[in-house]
Amino acid sequence: KLGTTGIITGFDIDTTHFSGNEAPEASVDAAHEFPNEETMWEGILPKVRLGPSRRHLYKIPATGQATYVRIRIYPDGGIARFRVYGHITPVFPANPVEPFDLAHIFTGGKVVATSNDHFGSSSNLLLPGRGKDMGDGWETKRSYTKDHQDWVTIKLGAPGYLSTAVIDTIHFKGNFPESCDIRGTNSQDIAPDANSDDWKIILSPVKLGPHRMHFFRLSSPCEQYTHVKVSIYPDGGIKRIRIIGTMAAKYGADVAEITTRADGKHQTTPIIVEEGWEVIED
Q1: CB neighbours of 95 closer than 8 A, spacing ≥ 6?
Q2: Where do the H-state alpha helices sit in the chain?
Q3: Disulfide-capable partner of 187 in 3, 192, 255, 260 (CB 3.0 to 4.6 Å)?
């Protein structure tokens, strides 16, 4: 079962450490609904050959929405890791004026730029829940430069009107940032220039404390934003960032105009298929 419903574009079938007892061949199927005896599995990766102790990366044409995948090996053998790559299908409130977290990974939020990921990945900031330790948060390298700051740029899942920010420093008890601020921009770029003058302060610098959730009211709630940039001073760790707001009306109408797959049963939203996959087929 995938972490959430999404559109699949590639796989990593890893046979590391399986040398001589690796699965010789594999294929992958997908399904949208909970599997049972009547489930119609759709083949999305035909049978491919696998080699010993190596990663096998495959790019496939973008699928429709999938929630479950099934990997089959022929005739038997071992696989170390199986990873599925693609694009999350955003989940938005049915009521267009209901506030929700526009930065959450399940609503399509995405970290598109960061100054530093030394101790922990900035993409962790958008994950569900509050995590289990410092390892699943964002933590930057220590700096001894005067007036240093680190930052992360988040592309919201939809353009929206922002009202509240939640900065969670749980588990960061001695290495949390001293303070932070938040800027917003409305941009057509995937990753706007972090140094652009188009960024507008929506949260002036505020103090942060250890191991707690901080709730801040954002300014300019009537202005529409597509990205936020969270800056921390001088460095340190944050577990989660939540950006609460409502979806811009026009975007909500656009989302309603989704396309239907040829089978007429499931719906998909437009996606961008990223290039760069190396296809290895011996």
Answers
A1: none
A2: 249-256
A3: 192
Backbone phi, then psi, for 158, in 5-degree steps? Answer: -155, 150
- What residues contact 46, with CB distance under 8 A and at least 6 apart? 27
pTM: 0.82
Residue 145: partners with Cβ closer than 8 Å, 6 or more residues away: 234
Give the other-Cβ count within 10 Å of 21's Cβ: 11
Cα-based distances in Å from 184 to 54, 90, 125, 198, 230 = 43, 21, 17, 8, 9
User: How does DSSP assign 33-80, residue by residue?
Assistant: S---TT---EEEEEEEE--SSSEEEEE----SEESEEEEEEES--B-S
**Each residue of 120-147: pLDDT tens digit?**
999 999 999 999 999 999 999 999 999 9
Residues in Cβ contact with 53 at an 8 Å cutoff, skipping those fewer than 6 apart: 15, 16, 17, 18, 19, 22
Tens of pLDDT, residues 5-18: 999 999 999 999 99
Residue with tokens 């990921």: 117
Euclidean distance between CA atoms 77 and 11, whole angstroms: 19
Closest CA to 78 of 14, 2, 11: 14
Burial readout 57-81 (b: 16 or more C-beta within 10 A, e: otherwise): bbbbebbbbbbbbeeebeeebbbee
Nearest CA-CA partner of 195 in 232, 141, 231, 247: 231
Whether 255 shows a pLDDT value over 70: the answer reads no
What is the DSSP pairing of strand 25-31 with strand 42-49? antiparallel
Task: Give pLDDT, residue 251.
Answer: 60
